[in-house]
Amino acid sequence: MFKANQRNPFISINSHTHKRMQLHSRKYGSGPPVIILHGLLGMSDNWISAAKSIAERGFCVHLPDLRNHGNSPHADTHRYPDMCEDLIYYLNNEQLESSRIIGHSMGGKLAMIMSLLHPERVEKLVVVDIAPSDYRKPENTFHARLISTLLQMDLSAYTRRSEIRKALEVQTGDNDLAMFLTKNITRDNQKNTFKWKCNLPVLYKFIQHLHTGLEDLDLYAPCSVQTLFVKGNDSTYYTEEHESDRQHFFPDSRVIGIDNAGHWLHSQQPAKFLNILANFL
User: Fold this and answer.
1) Average pLDDT along the chain
2) pTM value?
3) Would you say 37 and 101 are in contact if contact means Cβ atoms under 8 Å apart?
4) How far apart are CA 29 and CA 37, in angstroms?
5) Residue 100 bridge partners (DSSP)
């Protein structure tokens, strides 16, 4: 599936060694399929209200949890090729030949890779607050620091979810982020303690890979899929410097910015965001 290349991180996966993963998913509505791919440390839960709104417009919306997130299985790798294989497996199981795909952040990068490698499987593409660019800059350590912080927290020391949320707020200094992260907590019924839903050690190990750009997929450019980039105007994830990469990989695309919105624009400005999606989908 992936054209092999000595230095290509998207190198072909031997089907005998790649474990097929059945992703946990929620579904809403009926009609043409729309797949929503969440970002790093996210899960399908974050997108339920958006999915219901899109479903009301006559679509069947699929909300998979990506590997190592939410209620999907954990694995010892977290590379885009693995996630792409998972997604193809999911689409095949659901008998979906082509779908509209919406991806946020890490999910947006995955959606772009999917559209470059398998354009015949993607009807339309919406990329939310991320570019096809390389984000591996020395100053770009937010996610690595955040996951490191979470790994150092001993969840077994807490008896209430609200206590963990408060501790996260103190650690991050961000109430919205603390609430977002608290969704990643579940109970370990055997030990009767809290634990993280997401596979933090593996996500930490592959964080640099998740920040890579699409340069090694230049062979597949330009992408033929009609694409919309939606960005938060207060976000640093999509700025003027990312324009040339967008135009190179996705010439049939345009960008819409939303005021008073950062990286989590779908929860910060839901009405504006859903209106933009409705007009495009």
Assistant:
1) 90
2) 0.91
3) yes
4) 17
5) 34, 124
State the residue for tokens 């294989």: 85
Q: Which residues contact 208 (CB under 8 A, 6 or more apart)?
A: 136
> At 56, is the secondary structure helix, strand, or coil?
coil
245 by DSSP, 3-state: which? helix
Q: Which residue has the tokens 């659901």?
A: 94
CA 183, 184, 188, 194 dihedral sign is negative
The bridge status of strand 99-104 relative to strand 33-37 is parallel
CA angle 183, 200, 51 (to 5 degrees): 40
The two structure tokens encoding residue 197:
């839903």
Q: Give the whole-angstrom CA distance, residue 203 versus residue 189.
A: 24
**Going by DSSP bridges, is the β-strand pair 227-232/253-258 parallel, antiparallel, or unpaired?**
parallel
Instruction: Give the strands of the sheet with 122-128, arranged side by side.
Output: 25-28, 60-64, 33-37, 99-104, 122-128, 227-232, 253-258
Return the sign of the alpha-carbon dihedral for residues 204, 81, 129, 176.
Answer: negative
CA 111 centroid distance within chain: 8
CB 140 within 8 A of CB 211: yes
pLDDT digits (tens, 9 = 90+) for 234-261: 999 999 999 999 999 999 999 999 999 9
- The pLDDT tens digits of the residues spanning 80-108 come to 999 999 999 999 999 999 999 999 999 99
